[in-house]
């Protein structure tokens, strides 16, 4: 019996140790595929089916979206805020990632902790923290009025500005980490070689460092943009009804109005546009090729 088990275990592993045989690969990936189907594919498929499941099997819910200026405005606001948040996170994250790539030892540990700690904090808690900071009698308005910079509290809450600030803060680590990972893989000899050939620091950055870090930039941009499109808690709390986004609208249709067909149509439209943008993004930036290289 023991010899049979040993022979069975020996057949599971390849001699080179670099890849698993097909039976073991299926065994390892099976629970993940089952969980993905149960927790994601089936619910999303059912929601999409509801959007067209009516007596006449028509696309009336999709037509209702395209004919309503309100829903088109909400869609436009969602993608506009997603683009703005993506650009802001990229501008703020790249210097932080560049600095982290040059650190080592305990300094790197402290910087990494500062980036990772917000990820361990609930989005709900961070959203309420921004409400405390940006509200009419909040911390920021108290500082501005106390210094005499403003005569009255500024309307910093329940608008697109507050949503942009809060979403940028929440999504910033998702941009820092991919860029940092890409910068760490750049050999230190390459910038030194460029400097030895007469390139100054600016030319070294734009001709050597930045091009080699583009896979991390592309991954961070794609991740942040997709996450921003599906944000629900932060826009609902910090933005209020004046900055309604698609995810909040879908939640409203399902939990308050119980209009599942319309919610399914909104989800299908958002998913389709997102997949189209990801395809175009991948087509022009070659994310797969850069990741493979």
UniProtKB/TrEMBL annotation:
The chain crosses the membrane at residues 20-42, 79-101, 108-133, 161-183, 204-233, 262-285. Its main location: membrane. Keywords: Cell membrane, Membrane, Plasmid, Transmembrane, Transmembrane helix, Transport. It is found in: Cell membrane. It is a multi-pass membrane protein. InterPro entries: MetI-like, MetI-like_sf. GO terms for biological process: transmembrane transport. Residues 75-281 form the ABC transmembrane type-1 domain. GO terms for cellular component: plasma membrane. PANTHER family: ABC TRANSPORTER PERMEASE PROTEIN, INNER MEMBRANE ABC TRANSPORTER PERMEASE PROTEIN YDCU-RELATED-RELATED. Belongs to the binding-protein-dependent transport system permease family. CysTW subfamily. This is ABC transporter permease. It comes from Azospirillum oryzae.
